[in-house]
Write a structure and sequence with these properties.
Largest sheet: 3 strands, antiparallel
Order of helices and strands: EHHEEEEHEH
Number of helices: 4
Shape: elongated
Helix content: 40-55%
Structural class: alpha+beta
Strand order of the largest sheet: 1-2-3
Amino acid sequence: MRFAVRYREDAPVRVAVGALVLLALAIGLTYFFHTADAGRFGFGTALAWALAMLGLAVLFIAVLLMRESRPTVRLGLDGLLDRRWSAKPIGWSNIAEFDPVHWFGIPAVRLRLVDPDLDPPASLFARLARAIGLVAHDDVLVLVLGLDCTADALATRILGIGTAAIEAAEEAEAWAAGSEYAAPPHG
């Protein structure tokens, strides 16, 4: 029982178009400030070069997104893995509650963790968001912006797969404890 969510096909293309617009704007500003400053390197030219560097960085990110083939969010019996948050899955037993939310207007699924120390953020974005208070200490946000599913659909899949995984774990635990009413674990 698995479910995987990837970036939408058009998401990297939109990022690349945005980067090319930034680069074109930087070139136009460089020409404008170069002629306005009579060939001197002034503040405007430095601003245009900074914008060009930002455009190149965004273009590099777009290329990485286009080459990315692994799923961004994966649900399995071992837990929920959001590669943007952590390198290991968040276990189903550590998720106390979840619900679809809008975080600063961005659709997301908010997970409330039982013990946040078991699943610390591993990415720079996640650590920074938690450090400056954009995300509560015991929350994990699974952003669905740019992914090929909605927050409601992801929450529905979390409910189905998470419930099945917890029931299978409880059944295996009861069987291991010697309960005569428990079925043997599957697989």
